[in-house]
Amino acid sequence: xxLQGAPAWAADPDSRPANAVPGQDTATPVLxxxxxxxxxxxxxxxxAARRHLDVNKxxxxxxxxxxxxxxxxxTATGAKDETVRLQQKHRGVDVLxxxxxxxxxxxxxxxxxxxxxxxxxxxxSTDVTPQVTEDVAVRxxxxxxxxxxxxxxxxxxxxxxxxxxxxxxxxxxxxxxLVVLPKGAGILAYRVTVxxxxxxxxxxxxxxxxxDARSGYPALQYSALKTLTARELGADGGAAAGGPxxxxxxxxxxxLVPETGSGxxxxxxxxPLDIAYDPAAGSYLLADVGRMRAGSKSLLATWDARGTxxxxxxxxxxxxxxxxxxxxxxxxxxxxxxGAVDAHWNAGQVYDFYKKxxxxxxxxxxxxxxxxxxxxxxxxxxxxxxxxDGSKMVYGNGNSEFxxxxxxxxxxxxxxxxxxxxxxxNLVYAGQSGALNEALADYFGNAIDVTASGTPxxxxxxxxxxxxxxxxxxxxxxxxxxxxxxxxxxxSFLGVSFATDNGGVHLNSTIFSGALWDMREDLGGELADxxxxxxxxxxxxxxxxxxxxxxxxxxxxxxxxxxxxQQNAVKRSFNAHGIVPGWEQALGVDTDTLFGxxxxxxxxxxxxxxxxxxxxxxxxxxxxYSVYAGRLDRKGAPKVISPNDGRYHTAPxxxxxxxxxxxxxPTSVDVLSRPVAGGPVKTLxxxxxxxAGLRVDKGTVVFEEYDVFGGRHVGYQRPTDxxxxxxxxxxxxxxxxxxxxxxxxxxxxxxYPEGGTYRLGVxxxxxxxxxxxxxxxxxxxxxxxQTGINGKNVFWLADxxxxxxxxxxxxxxxxxxxxxxxxxxxxxxxxxxxxxxxVSQEALTLVAQTQDTLYRNESLPKLxxxxxxxxxxxxVSCNRGEQSHPAAGAxxxxxxxxxxxxxxxxxxxxxxxxxx
Length: 916
Hints:
Largest sheet: 7 strands, antiparallel
Distance between the termini: 30 Å
Number of helices: 16
CATH architecture of the largest domain: 6 Propeller
Radius of gyration: 28 Å
CATH superfamily of the largest domain: TolB, C-terminal domain
Strand content: 25-35%
Shape: globular
Number of domains: 5
C-alpha cells in the first residue's frame, strides 16, 4: 500500500481549463490555477467553495460537494484571500488523504474563486459496512506492530506467567474509527494507534496501523514519530520518539508580569530573554507573556524536563515538571547547560519569523501556546534527538558528541515547523509526503537560522542543519543534513519500505529541500520564503508527493506575482534536482525483474525447485493480495495460485511442486496450499491470531504461530498429517520461532526454561524419527535470529554481545548439532547488523546493514552473500535502495524484494555483484 498513486487522467480533456493538472488515480484535477470565477459573496466561505465545485462538475468530477466534502478549516490571508480546506467523505467515512482546497478572493462585496488543489478520489465505490469486529482489528494491529519491532528471539521475551496478560507484549491498541484508503474502489479500514515500548530497547512506540475491515489484514502501517533524525546521534543514546500528545501543561500562574531577562547560550554568547515575573512565588520564569499579549495571551514557555525519560514525554505531559525559574532576571548555568536558554531564545526567533515575515500567529496560526521541554533523557542516559509530538517540542539532553538539541536555531525551527505543517497541509509522515514534511521543516528551520545569524546563502555552511550542535567536530563533519548536498531523484532517491525510516522521510528529504534551497539562493529569502509558505498553507494537501508539491510551489509563485524570469528560476531549481513529472521511471537497477510493482507490504518471497512465489495486488486495488508463482529462469508467464475471494493472500513459500501461504480473513488467518501445476486449494491450518515464517519442502510445511501476548510456537505438517504438530507442545513457558526446513529436517530458534532461568538455543528436528537435538553454542547468546538449513548444516544468526549495537554473528553446526563454528564474527571488522538469512547448498545470503547513526544508501538493509564457511563475502546487488526477504535458489542464485525504483519489485541475480 502506497500513499501516492500512479498518475491518471480520466476526465474529458475538453471539460478542464488548460491550467488544470491531472490528478492521481482520480478524474479530479490535482491543481487548477488562474481562475477568476464569481461565487456567492454572502455565503459562508465553505459553502461558497462547495457551491463552486458543484456548479463546475464537468471540471472537478465531484458528484455532490455539499455531501461528500466536509469543511475542515478556513483561513484568511491578508485583507482578501480565503483558503477553504475540505475533507472528502465516502458514504460518511473519512478518506485518508482525501482533502481538497478552494482558494478565493473577496473584495468590494464580491468574491471569486482563484484556484483549487488537492486530492478527491472519484473511483471510490466500496461498501462501508465492516466485516471484522473492532476488537479483532485492534489485536491484529498490535500483533503486526510487535512483529515489526522484534523478529529476533531474546531473553526479554521470556514468559512471566501462564495467565494471558494483554499487556505482555508491551503494546496496546486504540481504535480511532473507520477510514477509507484511496486505492481503486477503496479499502475500508480501521485506524488503530498502537502504543508501547520496543522489546529489548524500551524505546517508545507510536504506530498508525490501518487494518482492512473486511479481512483483518494490516494493509498500511507506519510510525507516527516526527523526529529530527531517523536514528539516534552517536552510540550512547537511545531511540527516537514522538506522536500525538494526549494532554497539556498545567495552568500557568496568574498575573504574570512581562520582564526582560538574560542568559548564556551554549555557544557562549549572551542572549536577551523575554521572561515573566511571578508575584506569588517571587521568582522569574522562562515564560514569554509579551509576544501574544495583544491577542490570544498564550505563553511561549520553556520547561525543565531534566531527569524525564523520552517515554514519559512522548504523547503526554510529564508529571511534575515546571517552567525554568530563577531568583533574578539572569538565568544561570543550569538553564544554559540544559539547553533551556537556547530553546527559549530560539523559540522566540522562530515565532517572530513566522509572525513578521509570513503573518502567522504561532504554530496553529491562532496564537496557540508554544511549549518547549528540555533536558529529556533516554531512561536516564544521554538522548540525542528532538521531536514535535502534536502539541510541544521535546529536546534531548545530547551526548558526548552533541550538545542539548535546542542549541541550534535551525533545529528549533525544524521542530516548530512540524507544528505549522500539522496545522496546514498536515502532510502524512510516510513515503514522499513524509519526505516533504521533513524537507519543509528543514527548509524553514534553515531559513530562520540564516536570517537570524545574518549568514549569506553563498556561505559554504549556509545549508547545514544542526552544525551548531557539535561538541568536538567541525560543523560540516557532524551536521545532520546539508540542503546544498546536490541530491537528485535520479542519483539520490532511495526506495525503502515503510518499516525503514517511514518510507524514506529523512533519506529522501534533501532532494526536495535542496530544490527549495536553490530557489531561495536565486530569488532571495524574502520572496522564496513567502512562496514556500503559501504553497504549504494554501496549496498542499496530506498525501502530496514531490510532483504535486512542485506544482504547488510554482502555482504559489505565480499567485504572488513572480515574474516570468523568477518563475523560470523556480522551474530550474526543481529540474536540477530531478523533480519532474515521471521521474520515478528513471531509476536504474542491476537486476532482472521477475515480477514488478507488487503493491504489497509485510509479505515475503518463496523459492525452491526452480520456482518463485510472491504476493501481488493489482494497481487499482480491486483485487486484494493474490499469490503468484513463476519460474526463476523467467520462462513462461507467472500464474495465479490463490483464489480472488476478498482475503489477503500473503507470505508464500514454494518447493517447486507446492505453494503454501497465509490468508487473512475476518475471523481467522489460514495456512493454505495448492500444487504449482494446479488443483484444489487446501486449508492446512486456521489460526485465530497469526502465522509467519512459512517454509515448504517435499510437501512438508513449517511455520510459526504468534499472538499478541508474546507467544510464538513452531509447527510442522507433513503431507500425511491431518493437523500440525507443534515442536514445543505450545507450552506457555517455551517460545519457538524463525523456522527453516530442508528435506526431512527442520530447525528453529528456541527460548526455554532450564535451571531456574531461561536459555536460548537452536534446535534441529529429524521429522523421520522425531528426534530433536540442540545445536552446540560457542557461548551463551543474548539473542537469536533467523535460522537456515541445507543438506549438510544448520545456520543461524546470534547476538553474542548486547553492548555492540545489535551486530550479529552467523553460526553453523552439523545437522546432529555438533561441530559449531563461526561463519561470521560480530566482533571482527566489517561486522554487520543482520536481520534475515537464507541458504542454498553453496551459499548463505544475509539481509544486513552497517552500524551507522544516519540513514543513507550504504546503511540500508542490503543483501550480502557468504560462502558457507565464511571465507568470502560479497554484495549480491549494487541497487540503490532497500533489499529484503531473500530466497535462495540453486547455487548462488537469489531472489528478493527490491525497493530501488520506488515500488516493490521481485528481482533475481544468478551470482553476486561483488563490491559496490
